[in-house]
Design a protein that fits this description.
Helices cover 29% and strands 24% of the residues. With 316 residues, the chain is an alpha/beta fold. Strand 13 (266-271), helix 9 and strand 14 (284-287) form a beta-alpha-beta unit. The chain binds flavin-adenine dinucleotide (FAD). Residues 193-195, 219-222, 233-238, 250-252, 254, 256-257, 260, 270-273, 276, 289-291 line the site of flavin-adenine dinucleotide (FAD).
Length: 316
């Protein structure tokens, strides 16, 4: 099994490390800044510097590398979803999109908006995309890192244009709209729980999210009240997320919520109860009224000088 991970500007896409883990650490990273992106994965990695994202051209270029690999797994990131069908077509194999588990024997795919799981007996050769956030990442031990080998392949043989003309010309790359981005792909999340005193607080959270470049999430108590849509619910019966920064406003940290949180690098919790589980998990635990703090934060961040400092300083 081999993972193929499309990389842009040295940033590993959402689900990239998971796809590599699903393939026992064997991965090809293709794109720009692949060696930098490889630093966060342990395993047997091949890096192909191939410039800007060109799924049609890349599929043809990868064909000889992948021919001997019966199972190819891509992350269900935006670029992974674009590249996977082209690879499947070039390699002449079936594609299992939206898998939650891939093995040599079977593939489990989520269907009906994640309500049903279908187990398919794996054919000999296939391509699959692995959903983001469902698998998690194996802990990177020092032994695993020491054993990591990174091989950089030359880009000279990489076609920059697809001979079949299947690649669209890029006019401009627009940043994601944090308000509507899929929560599973958000690197920063501001979330609210029952400590917030009204549905209007979620308009404030959306405003805060805009100022911080973060998406908005919530607990089940909130989605059950209808204060925000169910697609924004984080947890076992909601979305599984994996942000780098998580801000929790008035959230107790019940296990059904935190089990969907992934492994954020930074957790900030604002709660009146210093001893609740969310405060215990937090890197920064603020004992305060979450509603008042929300008002204050928005006032502060709306001040241009503060916003400027924050945008430089919050790469988490
Ligand atoms: C089968 C099952 C599945 C579930 N799935 C999910 C799921 O997917 N996701 C999920 O989130 N939950 C899920 N739940 C519910 C879960 O068990 C919790 O009930 C829920 O997560 C609690 O949400 P909460 O933290 O918003 O509310 P609470 O647990 O009521 O916590 C509110 C917190 O706000 C604090 N607070 C109160 N006032 C203030 C204030 N003014 N300022 C600051 N803090 C304040 C309190 O100290 C408390 O810590 C599930 C439950 C079951 C049984």
């Amino acid at each position: 099994m081999l993972a193929v991970i499309p990389v842009r500007d040295g940033i590993l896409p959402a689900g990239g490390a998971e796809a590599a883990c699903e393939c026992y650490g064997r991965a090809v990273l293709i794109g720009s800044g692949t060696v930098a992106a490889a630093a966060s994965i342990a395993g047997e990695l091949r890096c192909i510097e191939a410039g800007a994202f060109s799924p049609g051209a890349w599929a043809h270029a990868l064909d000889p590398i992948l021919t001997a690999e019966p199972i190819v797994v891509l992350p269900s990131s935006a670029d992974g979803r674009d590249l996977a069908p082209r690879l499947a077509a070039v390699l002449d194999r079936p594609l299992f999109a939206g898998a939650i588990k891939v093995t040599e024997r079977e593939v489990v795919v989520a269907r009906d908006g994640g309500l049903t799981m279908h187990t398919v007996v794996a054919p000999e050769r296939f391509v699959a995309t692995l959903q983001v956030g469902v698998r998690g990442v194996d802990p990177v031990t020092s032994e695993a890192t020491a054993a990591t080998s990174v091989e950089l392949l030359t880009s000279e043989t990489m076609p920059t244009q697809d001979a079949a003309g299947a690649d669209a010309g890029v006019v401009e790359v627009l940043g994601p709209d944090v308000a509507s981005i899929d929560l599973a792909e958000a690197t920063r999340i501001v979330a609210g729980g029952a400590g917030l005193d009204g549905s209007g607080r979620f308009d404030q959270l959306a405003k805060l999210g805009e100022l911080l470049g973060a998406s908005v999430g919530a607990t089940r108590v909130i989605t059950d009240r209808g204060w925000i849509g169910h697609e924004r619910q984080i947890g076992t019966t909601g979305v599984v997320v994996d942000p780098r920064l998580y801000l929790a406003f008035g959230i107790s940290g019940a296990v059904q919520h935190t089990s969907g949180l992934g492994d954020p690098e930074h957790i900030i919790s604002i709660n009146l109860d210093a001893h609740c589980p969310m405060m215990q998990l937090a890197d920064l635990a603020v004992v305060a009224d979450a509603n008042e703090l929300l008002d204050e934060l928005i006032d502060l961040l709306a001040t241009p000088a503060i916003t400027r400092i924050t945008m430089v300083d919050t790469d988490g």
